[in-house]
Amino acid sequence: EAGVAQSPRYKIIEKRQSVAFWCNPISGHATLYWYQQILGQGPKLLIQFQNNGVVDDSQLPKDRFSAERLKGVDSTLKIQPAKLEDSAVYLCASRLPGQGEETQYFGPGTRLLVL
Amino acid sequence: AQSVSQHNHHVILSEAASLELGCNYSYGGTVNLFWYVQYPGQHLQLLLKYFSGDPLVKGIKGFEAEFIKSKFSFNLRKPSVQWSDTAEYFCAVNALRAAGNKLTFGGGTRVLVKP
């Protein structure tokens, strides 16, 4: 089966610019996650969706980060405006509903560099 | 909130050497414990998991981990590493019945196996 797709794979922007990342989960995976992985750290959950509804966005910096999953399939994560400390790999993951958290499939990530 | 700490950021060893990576977590309740691996250029993937029962769990590629509840630890081991074990290893905890019920990752350990 096809895996979790993410684009772009790399992005370089200047601070205060905006950026958007796209994720296409595995077909049928109603649960979708966005993680932020700063260099030298483990992935940190930003937001979790169940279909098009938000399950957990407690760690999403809502003053600059937003995410949506309008049709319950693809998702976009936006940063506006970006700061230097947003430089990180942004991982998307998905799983079937009702399965354990460890059944998440991770995408390749988008590596963001903010200059 | 739960947290996970991994003792070593980098480990360098030769082929056939034994590997042990430390992981400690902070959460007083019931947990599910995991080790993930990310090989160079590949996605994050599950290496092994502990839910309950025998505290010594075996995963893929000859890895095993031991859960010591009294020490809040879940250390990863492999008796004899291969060059192909070069990767970054992440310990993760799912604190059951905690707020959010999400995966919390440690900071990761980069392992380099010299041929």
Summarize the structure.
The complex is a heterodimer of chains A (115) and B (115). Chain A is mostly beta strands.
Structure notes:
- The complex is a heterodimer of chains A (115) and B (115).
- Chain A has 115 residues and is mainly beta.
- Chain A has strands spanning 5-7, 10-13, 19-24, 31-37, 44-50, 53-56, 65-68, 75-79, 88-95, 105-106, 110-114.
- The radius of gyration of chain A is 13 Å and the shape is globular.
- Chain A starts with a strand and ends with a strand.
- In chain A, 36% of the residues are buried.
- The mean pLDDT of chain A is 95.
- In chain B, the strands form three sheets. In chain B, strands 2, 5, 6, 10, 11 and 12 form a six-stranded mixed sheet that branches. In chain B, strands 3-9-8-7 form a four-stranded antiparallel sheet, with no helix packed on it. A two-stranded antiparallel sheet of chain B has the order 1-4.
- In chain B, 32% of the residues are buried.
- Chain B has strands at 3-6, 10-14, 19-21, 23-26, 31-38, 45-50, 56-58, 64-68, 73-78, 87-95, 103-105, 109-114.
- Chain B has 115 residues and is mostly beta strands.
- In chain B, strand 7 and strand 8 form a beta hairpin.
- The interface between A and B is medium-sized, with 20 and 21 residues.
Number of strands of chain B: 12
Morphology call of chain B: globular
Strand content of chain B: over 45%
Class of secondary structure makeup of chain B: mainly beta
As a whole number of angstroms, the C-alpha radius of gyration of chain A is: 13 Å
pLDDT averaged over residues of chain A = 95
Any idea what the radius of gyration of chain B is? 14 Å
Quaternary structure: heterodimer
Sheet/helix structural class of chain A: mainly beta
How is the biggest beta sheet of chain A arranged? 7 strands, mixed
Order of helices and strands of chain A: EEEEEEEEEEE
Beta-strand proportion of chain A: over 45%
By DSSP (H or I, 4+ residues per run), the number of helices of chain A equals 0
